[in-house]
């Protein structure tokens, strides 16, 4: 909506008509309202951005913090179980560009499925976001590291857990039924 307001503002028509890259100019102004020549419009755009309860910078900051908190929770749970793993930061330092949150150094079994990696999602797994994650993240992880586990800490639509046989297991909490290789040794 802010983009439309900015595009339609009478004070902006001349600027946008003269600019060949008006979309780039608009994006810059939305990110940095001080670039908007009309001071009142600039202040209104900035106030709307700050007050945006769905997509504003405060919401982004909160989502990021909650995501980090759940990644710490995941690492703590893995440490409690004495499971050896590499986290995303360690993997990036090793040169990996696209990584899950956790790679298990020794795979485990969860509900009879082998798990090599774990991805933490501090959100609800709805149809749209899950399919986006599948295409942009999870299948890449599967191709690089093998089968894995996604934890949607705030639940997910049950029908989405349909890729188990293909190597992507969904859970809404840290699994309690992890089987390690040491448990299999006689």
Automatic annotation (TrEMBL):
<keyword id="KW-0539">Nucleus</keyword>
<dbReference type="GO" id="GO:0030218">
    <property type="term" value="P:erythrocyte differentiation"/>
</dbReference>
<dbReference type="GO" id="GO:0005634">
    <property type="term" value="C:nucleus"/>
</dbReference>
<protein>
    <recommendedName>
        <fullName>CDAN1-interacting nuclease 1</fullName>
    </recommendedName>
</protein>
<dbReference type="InterPro" id="IPR029404">
    <property type="entry name" value="CDIN1"/>
</dbReference>
<keyword id="KW-0963">Cytoplasm</keyword>
<dbReference type="GO" id="GO:0005737">
    <property type="term" value="C:cytoplasm"/>
</dbReference>
<dbReference type="Pfam" id="PF14811">
    <property type="entry name" value="TPD"/>
</dbReference>
């Amino acid at each position: 909506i802010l983009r439309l307001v900015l595009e339609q503002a009478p004070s902006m028509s001349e600027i946008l008509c003269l600019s060949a890259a008006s979309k780039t100019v608009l994006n810059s102004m939305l990110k940095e309202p001080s670039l908007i020549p009309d001071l009142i419009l600039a202040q209104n755009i900035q106030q709307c951005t700050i007050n945006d309860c769905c997509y504003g910078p405060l919401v982004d900051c909160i989502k990021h913090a909650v995501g980090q908190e759940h990644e710490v929770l995941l690492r703590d749970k893995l440490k409690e179980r004495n499971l050896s793993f590499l986290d995303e930061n360690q993997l990036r330092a090793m040169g990996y560009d696209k990584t899950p949150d956790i790679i298990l150094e020794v795979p485990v079994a969860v509900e009879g499925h082998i798990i090599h990696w774990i991805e933490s999602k501090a959100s609800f797994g709805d149809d749209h976001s899950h399919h986006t994650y599948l295409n942009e993240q999870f299948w890449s992880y599967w191709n690089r590291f093998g089968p894995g586990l996604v934890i949607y800490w705030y639940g997910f639509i049950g029908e989405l857990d349909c890729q188990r046989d293909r190597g992507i297991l969904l859970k809404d909490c840290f699994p309690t039924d992890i089987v390690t290789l040491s448990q299999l040794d006689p």
